[in-house]
Specification:
By secondary structure, the protein is an alpha/beta fold. The protein contains 10 helices and 12 strands.
Amino acid sequence: MKVAHLILTYTNPKLTERLIKRLNQPEFTFYVHVDKKLSIEPYLYLRKYTNVFLIHNREDVRWAGFNTIKATFKCIQEIAATEVKYDYINFISGQDYPIKSGKYMLEFFKKNKGKQFIEYASIEDQWIEALPRITNYHFANFTFRGRYRLEKIINFFLPKRELPDNLKPYGKSMFWMLTMDCALYVVDFFREHKELARFFLFTWGSDEFAFQTVLMNSHYKDSVVNNDFRYIDWSQGGAHPKILTEADLPKIKASNDLFARKFDENMSDEFMDTLDSLN
């Protein structure tokens, strides 16, 4: 069982290093994508670990923009091009942290081999509040002046957008654990369906529904488990989850999840040591 942990980060490299050390197993390899807007220099020291690689083909990640998907696709392709044949890719961020040990996770992957783990809901029937992300035009991936005003004008005059090829929209969380063949299927699907990539370019938060939409409209849907095994607290409302602190430890300890997010890069050593002691 070989697992590639894909980490998209723009935060403190020391936190990324601690995450890697917490998870480390002989069967695990870590691929770190550093946002292209940032200097790669502070992260270069991570290469001292023989199973850590920095993604070469970096992307300028835009919050809620399609560039996040482009970055993810580049990473999957770079991982697939290596000589190692990975069974799984586990997609996490630099503000995630393991709440289970590397050994526990390895057994999890072995026990569930062939299953796909990603959270999903039908955007038409269940996650209805997300529908305008798709049916309206959005310029989240662009930075030109007046883009919000232009959005309003375009959405006032143009009809609602519909997904190409009669695809049914699904989405929820952007993080997942997929078999290598499944992850590559999504990449190849977008490459072969250029109109879908163009459509998603003008959505908002496409990283929360691009993978789900493709997979739940594919032959992989029967192998998809509706769980990403991430502990995330959305109780404060809005587009960002709560920053977890020591006060959240009882709920984290009671969770069956593998990772928790979102953590501040300035977590106390005591808090992190407690997290490291779990399972």
